[in-house]
Design brief:
Layout lengths: L8 E6 L4 E6 L4 E5 L3 H4 L13 E4 L6 H10 L2 H18 L5 H20 L8 H7 L1 H18 L5 H15 L6 H21 L8 H18 L10 H9 L4 H15 L5 H16 L1
Antiparallel strand pairs: 1-2, 2-3, 3-4
Keywords: Repeat
Organism: Thorsellia anophelis DSM 18579
InterPro entries: BglG_antiterminators, CAT_RNA-bd_dom, CAT_RNA-bd_dom_sf, PRD, PRD_sf
Length: 285
């Protein structure tokens, strides 16, 4: 969440029972969230920042009217539910709360409820992969769906939890849509298959060492996708691993060639060395 030093917040519009659009003394637009704030406020009122439960500074790349259009159709209960979700996410995942992830999830939960009432079911063929590769994100998303089902008397399926988990992962990757997350999930799945084929190890998220391996592979893929590969002028690490663990080279090279072909890039020697280190740790467990 963005924290500002604000002298004055003036109410511009009541968005709903819990949200008020304000401007500060520099003209920056801010959305303040507090239970019942919309009931107590009117246009022109001065609101003290310390009264806010959440405070969102609207970024210039998104129009205020886009937020208003969304909030006009969403109930306060959905907004409060999403707020709870992100509190959980901040604690468990270290996700920083900002307006983009907040309103993205508000829109998603609202649309999921609407689809349910229309009888529209969206299949998520990657649900099992999401559970395996993003267990924390999925666990938080499942809480959301369970609470939504209880609160609104629904029967939203687990696939919706998978969709929300994608949003949480995409926010951590700092991307604006879930396509890179879906690609990263595909890459992880194939890495698992290559490990199973070459090393006869089936990755299980219930195993601590296997979970560590998956975590490192997630960051490995993220660095490559963001063009932030590790670099080093010292070839000793890679040479040492190649000499000490020749049996891992076939698996390592298969993963390397697959990643390079899918992401149209070349792995640095240091990235390849760290990939091999994680394979060493995996086979030593």
């Amino acid at each position: 969440m963005v924290i500002l030093t604000i002298m004055t917040l003036i109410t511009k519009k009541i968005l709903n029972n819990s949200l008020v659009l304000c401007s500060d003394d520099k003209g920056q637009e801010v959305i303040i969230m507090a239970k019942g704030l919309g009931f107590k406020s009117k246009v022109g009122d001065i609101i003290l920042p310390e009264l806010a439960e959440k405070l969102f500074v609207l970024q210039n790349d998104i129009k205020t009217t886009d937020y208003e259009a969304l909030l006009d159709k969403v109930s306060s209960e959905v907004i409060e539910l999403v707020s709870m979700i992100l509190e959980e996410s901040t604690e468990e995942l270290g996700i920083s709360l900002n307006e983009k992830i907040f309103f993205s999830l508000v829109d998603h939960v609202h649309f999921a409820i609407w689809r349910y009432h229309q009888g529209i079911i969206i299949q998520n063929n990657q649900l099992n992969d999401i559970k395996k590769f993003y267990p924390k994100e999925y666990a938080i998303a499942k809480i959301v769906i369970d609470k939504a089902n209880d609160k609104f008397n629904l029967q939203l399926p687990d696939e919706e939890a998978g969709n929300i988990a994608f949003h949480l992962v995409s926010h951590q990757l700092e991307v604006q849509d879930i396509q890179p997350v879906m690609l990263a999930t595909k890459l992880l799945k194939t890495i698992n298959r290559l490990v199973l084929y070459h090393l006869h190890i089936e990755i299980e998220s219930s195993s601590w060492n296997h979970t560590c391996f998956l975590t490192h592979m997630r960051f490995f893929i993220q660095r490559i996708m963001e063009n932030k590969q590790l670099h080093s002028n010292d070839p000793a690490l890679l040479a040492l691993i190649q000499q000490s663990y020749p049996h891992l080279m076939i698996c390592g090279n298969s993963i390397k060639q697959y990643i390079e072909s899918q992401l149209n890039t070349q792995l640095t020697d240091e990235e390849f060395g760290y990939l091999l280190i994680h394979l060493v740790r995996l086979t030593s467990s």
